[in-house]
Amino acid sequence: MSTPILFVDRDGTLIEEPSDFQIDAYEKLRFVRGVIPALLKLRDAGYQFVIVSNQDGLGSEAYPRASFDGPNELMLQVFESQGIMFREVLIDCSWPQDNAPTRKPGIGLALHYLRDRGIDLERSAMVGDRETDLQFAQNMDIRGFQLATEQFGGEWDWAGIAHELADAPRRAMVRRDTKETKIRVDVDLDRVADPQIHTGLPFFDHMLEQIGKHGGFALEVRTEGDLHIDEHHTVEDTGLALGQALRQALGDKRGIGRYGFTLPMDETLASAALDFSGRPYFVFDGEFRRERVGDLPTELVPHFFRSLCDAAGLNLNLQVRGDNDHHKVEACFKVLARALRQAVRREGAELPSTKGAL
């Protein structure tokens, strides 16, 4: 099995870069926030680490080698004490005006990794804080991540990079624009985050928050609908967009749990038996006495779930019993969320079907 390599810049990436751009004293040594837990996660995912660093004029009178070696060795010892080893430390000591092929973004120091058949270049990546690090990644034909810094920009932090590479996150972004609604749904089934929901219907927002919160995944929904007419298009089209996002994020569905849940809420009992079978089907067993709960018409509750099933390729049998319609509506959304939490959880790499497809 081939090994993915994470190439990492040193100054500004592993350790903070001082204003004079030289870490030539022990008191200047400070680690970038989040780097150690992120590297541990990537190590456990099978990554090996290689430092690739430009050190302008290292070994010259302006930057004596002895000033560099002490803090650098301490940095490596701290990483090693936490279980993080570096396969190689590649240092270019040239000046920018030398235009050396070994100086990033040049790849002269790392060419042997391109020739090594034991390296998984498809999963390998480069992390740095400067544009030259991204250019290095491009020259190596691997993915590049630029850490967010005040000086050089960038948009990633270490936790996000580790999630992206180690978790192989199942993500989707769906836009659905019609004459009645404009909707954007973002899901990340492998990241936990507070739901970000805005549909113009506060009670519906609260119900969709249950899906993200109890589903255990990151969910963002932004819906602009023709609420001056009624709530129908907003609820229906949001269900369709969310279902489409779930279907896309699940991909080929390898490793998923696939099936259901039962949930009590005060006097109410709700059950969601679901199957990501690829064959949409919805059965609802329950009734509501009130016309509305908050600003959500209760007749649209089963309609939302039907729309979700149609777009997600989901088979859902949803049952609810109780006396309080607020509790019953909320229990429907919560039990769906808990069923989704079980169904989308990865339990390996096998396809949970004897047919060979879902």
Structure overview:
Helices cover 33% and strands 23% of the residues. Strands 3-2-1-4-5 form a five-stranded parallel sheet, covered by helices on one side. A four-stranded mixed sheet has the order 6-7-9-8, with helices on one face. The longest helix is centred in the C-terminal third of the chain and has 20 residues, at 325-344. It has two domains: 5-166, Rossmann fold (3-Layer(aba) Sandwich), CATH 3.40.50; 171-344, Imidazole glycerol phosphate dehydratase, domain 1 (Ribosomal Protein S5, domain 2, 2-Layer Sandwich), CATH 3.30.230. The chain starts with a strand and ends in a 14-residue tail after the last helix. The mean pLDDT is 93. The chain is elongated, with a radius of gyration of 26 Å. The chain contains nine helices and 15 strands. Helix 1 (35-44) runs parallel beside helix 5, helix 6 packs parallel to helix 9 and helix 7 (232-250) packs parallel to helix 8 (300-312). By secondary structure, the protein is of the alpha/beta class. Strand 4, helix 4 and strand 5 (143-146) form a beta-alpha-beta unit.
